[in-house]
Amino acid sequence: MCKDFQNFSKKYQFSQDVINLFWEKYGERTEKIIQALKQPSKNYAIRVNTLKVTSEKVIEILQEMNIQAEIHPELDEVVLLPVKGPFSVPEYEKKVVVDKFTAESLIQGADLFAPGVLRASKIRLGDMVTIIDKTGECIAAGKAMMTAREMLQLKKGLAVKILYSRYKIFSIRESQLFKKGYIFDQSFPSILVSKILDPQPYEFVLDLCAAPGGKATHIAQIMRNKGCIIAIDRSKPRIKRIKEHILRLGIKNLQVFHGDSRNLPEKYHHCADKILLDPPCSALGVRPKLQVFTTKRDIINLVRYQRQFLEAVANYIKPNGILVYCTCTLTTEENEENIKFLVDNFNCEIIEQSFFYGYPGEKIENLPNWQKLQRFYPDIHDTPGYFIAKLRFRL
Ligand SMILES: C[S@@+](CC[C@H](N)C(=O)[O-])C[C@H]1O[C@@H](n2cnc3c(N)ncnc32)[C@H](O)[C@@H]1O
Fold first, then answer.
1. pLDDT digits over 262-301, tens only?
2. Which residues are catalytic?
3. Which of the residue ranges 2-16, 180-194, 221-235, 271-285 would you say has the lowest mean pLDDT?
4. Which pLDDT band holds residue 395 (cuts at 50, 70, 90)?
5. Which atom of ligand 1 is nearest to the CA of 280?
6. Are 170 and 45 in contact (CB under 8 A)?
7. First-last CA distance in the chain
8. How far apart are CA 158 and CA 156, in angstroms?
9. Chain Cα centroid distance, residue 343
10. Does residue 1 register a pLDDT over 60?
11. How confident is the model at residue 3 (pLDDT cuts 50, 70, 90)?
């Protein structure tokens, strides 16, 4: 890679701030990381809901559907499905423009629903259309299930049935496996988080940023529906999604509350055996990424926000309680530096993670036990970029 960041930024459509940040940390490896981020992982992970079914049964059902799958070699509640592609996408005359997040799911073969449409014109029911993002990049193609006017006016409904996409994975959310509550689609590092928290069936667990509930429902599953988990989230629509998953998965020990977990009422003070904190982050590890607009200022603001949750944790945790902190991003600021902030300001220490398949965290001056932090890198681990820390609070 040349150090001409401007050209590099244009070529990959990543903001210059992010390229600078990566370059400072990873040097020549930056290009490999960005290339990996622009593609999905080669294998798509799903978590098996062991409250309802075994991984072997899920594999059997997938085989009956002619879908190739295997149990993860390290963790038997994880099933891996190969991601096929890249394929070329036909360019039809009629185009539908979608937002960045919609584009990132369409690129893997998901159908297009009306809320993701930004622009469409002169499209009739049944027309073949190509889906492009705001920069004009071809994402997918398929058959219009609505007119252009409906795509722009309706708040829900299938807009385009996708027939061609750059990558293809089995449509998990439409499958009976998903509808019956047998599986949850979740990345491998994200599945590890609840395993690392290691909740016990008699414990009281707080999940401070819980929606849409991937980790909270996994905690419930590990606790075999015993003990008590309180899951809080500030977003009402996302809370609704946790509630749907709870019903689907047959979860009974998880209570969900809408609220700001930085300011929980007094009754939550010093009561949690274990806390999971998965706060909003710059999500620079999430794949596939078509463009990144994140600025240095965004990261500074996110760190400030994340530290407000970290300060609150000290109020909610019991003496000797455990915190697991995680992010799906690659910046040192939101990861190791936040952990240093905790260790410097509160009576807590980094402890070992019993499930360790990534790399150690990044070395930070005067941070004891930084090697016990865990990172996943998209160019090395065939996963999203991820960070996991486990700490014990002595208080
Ligand atoms: C990374 S997501 C959590 C993902 C979740 N842990 C899972 O595994 O499915 C971060 C969540 O934090 C929530 N959030 C943001 N600010 C919050 C606040 N002040 N209090 C509670 N939740 C908040 C967002 O609505 C979002 O759902």
1. 999 999 999 999 999 999 999 999 999 999 999 999 999 9
2. 328
3. 2-16
4. low
5. 10
6. no
7. 48
8. 7
9. 26
10. no
11. low
Let me know: does 192 contact 389? Beta carbons within 8 Å.
no
Whole-angstrom distance, CA of residue 298 vs CA of residue 296: 5
Q: Which residue bears the tokens 């009629």?
A: 94
Is residue 262 lining ligand 1, measured as CB closer than 6 Å?
A: yes
Q: What average pLDDT does range 87-110 have in this prediction?
A: 95
Residues composing the chain = 395
Q: Which residues of 330-365 are buried (b: 16+ CB within 10 A; e: fewer)?
A: bbbbbbbbbbbebbeebebebeebebebbeebbebe
Atom of ligand 1 nearest to the CA of 232: 21
Cα 261 to ligand 1 centre (Å): 9
The tokens of 183 are what? 């599986």
Domains of the chain in start order, with CATH, are: 5-37 (no CATH), 43-83 (no CATH), 95-165 (2.30.130.10), 187-393 (3.40.50.150)
Residue 321 CA to ligand 1 center (angstroms) comes to 21
Distance of CA 229 to CAs 9, 135, 213, Å?
43, 43, 12
Q: Enter the tokens of residue 328.
A: 């799906």
